Amino acid sequence: MRIQKYFALLLFTIFSSCYQDQQNKITLTKEIVGLEKLKKYITDFNEKDYEIYKQFYENSEAYDFLSKNIPLIDLPNKDIEETYYFRWWTYRKHIKNTDDGFVITEFLPQVFWSMKHNTINCPAAHHIYEGRWLRDPKYISEYINFWLNKSGDGIRQYSFWVADATLAFNNIHRNDSILSSQLSPLISNYNEWEKIRKDKDKSLFWQFDVNDGMELTVSGRILNENIEKFGVEATRPTINSYMYADAMAISKIAFLNNNFEIGKKFENKANKIKEELQDRLWNDELNFFTVLPKNHNKTSKPLNVRELIGYVPWYFNLPDDKPEYALAWEKLKDTTGFSAPYGLTVTEQSHPFFKISYQGHECQWNGPSWPFATTQTLKALSNYVNNYSENKSISKDDYYPLLLQYAKSHKILNENGEAQNWIDENLNPYTGDWISRTRLKNWEGEGWSDGKGGVERGKDYNHSGFCDLVLSDLLGIKLSIDGTIEINPLIPNEWEWFAVDNIFHQGRKVSLVWDKTGEKYNLGKGLMVFLENKIVVKTNKIEKLVLNNY
Q: Could you tell me where the beta strands, DSSP code E, fall in 481-533?
C-alpha cells in the first residue's frame, strides 16, 4: 500500500515542535536495528540451554524464525533488551503444529490438567497479545480459530478474555472476513459464560479462584472461614473485568460488521458490568477493588484484603476517572502493600494471611510474585498513566522501575553459580527463587514427579507476557484496527536513544527512533516514525503522537 500522506495528525503541542517539510524527507536505506544483536542473543541462549522438550521450532531454528518475525529493538538498558529477546526465544518453543492448526502451549511437557493438544486457555490471552507482534499472522490466527471452533469446552476451562484478545490481534493484523466469521462463536462463548457463571438475579459473574488461574488465594481463605481451600467461589474483579472487556470487544466487532443491534446489545452488557463492578467491588475502607462473596446481597461488603487482581479493571480501562480510585495505586509502591525487592506480591504484605510457603501445593497465590499477575498489573499501570487524569498517586516515572524489576527477575543460578536467563511459575519476592521449581525438583524427596508434569515442568513457562509490555507500553506503540498509529513512550527521562524496527501493521512496515543528539543513528535529532522506510513525522522531544489518514 502506498503512503498517501507523509504527515499525520499530532496531539498536544506537536505542531510547534515539528521540523520543516524539507527536513523530513529521510528514507532508510538499511535496517535501523541489524540482525547481529539478535543472532548474538540467540546463540547465547541456545548454548546455555538444555533442550528437553521440542516442538515445531527447535533451538537450531530459533534464529531463522525470530529474524523473520519479531520486531527488533535497541535499548540503552540491556536487562530489558536481553529479557525481551529471551522471552521471544522461549515463546517460539511453545508454537505447536497440530491437526487443528497452530496452537500455543503453556507447558512444554504434557500435564494432566491440560486440554486438547496440551493447551490451557488460562494464559491464552497473554499468548495472543504477545504473538500478535509476529510478522506472520498465521500462528495466532489459527490459535484463535482453535479456541473458538475446535477446542470444545476447553475455551471455558479457565477465565479467558478471548474476544478482547481477538480484537487486539486484529488491531495489528486486520482481516475483516475472518473477524466477521468469528463474531458468532464469540457471542456463543459469551452466552455460555452467562449460563455457567452468572446467577439470574445478578449482573456480575462469579468464579472459583483456581479457575481464575489462582490457587489458594487469601480471599478464598477468608470466604472459607479462614481455612485454606483449593477452589472457592467468589465474585472477583478478574472475571468481571474479562467479561466487560469481551462484551466491549464483541460490540466493536459487531459495529465493524454493521450489525448495530448486536453492537448496542453488548455495549449495554459491558456498561452494566462496569456500573455494578464499581458499585459492588470497590471497597471504600481499603480504597481498592476487592472480592465480593458469590452469594452476595444488597448489604454484602467486599472483603477487607487487597490482592493484586484489584488492578485488573484498569487493564481494560474499565474504571471511571475518579479521584477516589486513584488511591488504589498508592499500594503498588508500598512495602506493606505489593512492593518487594524481586517482584510484586499477589497479596498485600500487611495482611495476616500473607505468606511465602515451601509447603503444600507448589502454586499458591497468597504471597509470591506471579509473572501472570505482574503482566496484568503493568498493563493496567500503563493504561492508568496514559488515559487517566486523576493519577495523583502514581506517574510515568513509576512504570519503568517496575518493568526493569520484572526484567531482572528472569534469572536463575545454574550449577556453576552463574546467572542464567529463566522464566518459571512463581517467584519468591524476597529472594528471587523460583518457588515451584524448588519444590518440584525433589517432590516428596523422590525427584521430579511425572504426576506433577515431569522434569523441569515450569522451565520456559509460557503463562505471562513481557514483549508486549516493552512494545506497547514502554516504547508506547499502540496500533489500531482503523490504521491509526499512536506513539507515547514511557521511557525514563535519561534515555537519549532507542530504536525499534520491523513492526508490521496491517502489512506495512513501521519503525520508531528516538535520538536526542542525532549521534546514535545518524538520522537527525528527535523522535522519528518511519512507514515503509520513509519518515512520516519527526519531533524534537518525547511526546504523544497520533498518526492517521496516511
A: 485-487, 497-505, 508-515, 526-531
Joined grid coordinates for residue 11? 496531539
The angle subtended at Cα 316 by Cα 531 and Cα 75, nearest 5°, is 45
- Angle made by CA atoms 120, 124, 127, in degrees to the nearest 5: 125
- How many angstroms separate the CA atoms of 223 and 208, rounded? 12
Residue range 144-180, pLDDT digits in tens: 999 999 999 999 999 999 999 999 999 999 999 999 9
10 Å Cβ neighbour count for 320? 11
For the beta carbon of residue 278, count every other beta carbon within 10 angstroms.
16
Closest CA to 191 of 234, 150, 250, 146: 250
Residue pointed to by grid coordinates 467461589: 233
CB-count burial class (<10 Å; 0-12, 13-18, 19+) for 414: exposed
Measured distance CA(292)–CA(515) in Å, rounded: 49
3-state secondary structure of 406: helix
For the chain, give the longest Cα–Cα distance. Answer: 72
For residue range 460-489, what is the model confidence (pLDDT) as tens digits?
999 999 999 999 999 999 999 999 999 999
What's the grid cell of residue 39? Answer: 543472532
Cβ-contact 34, 438 below 8 angstroms? no
* pLDDT level of residue 9 (50, 70, 90 thresholds): very low
pLDDT at 17: 39
pLDDT in the model for residue 23: 46
By the 8 A CB rule, do 317 and 249 touch?
no
User: Cell triple for residue 331?
Assistant: 499500594
Taking the alpha carbons at both ends of the chain, their separation in whole angstroms is 10
Q: Please report where in the chains the cell 506497547 appears, as a residue.
A: 472
Q: Among candidates 361, 356, 324, which has minimal Cα distance to 343? A: 356
**Its pTM surpasses 0.70:** yes
Q: Residue 408: phi, psi to the nearest 5?
A: -65, -20
The answer to whether 115 touches 131, Cβ cutoff 8 Å, is no
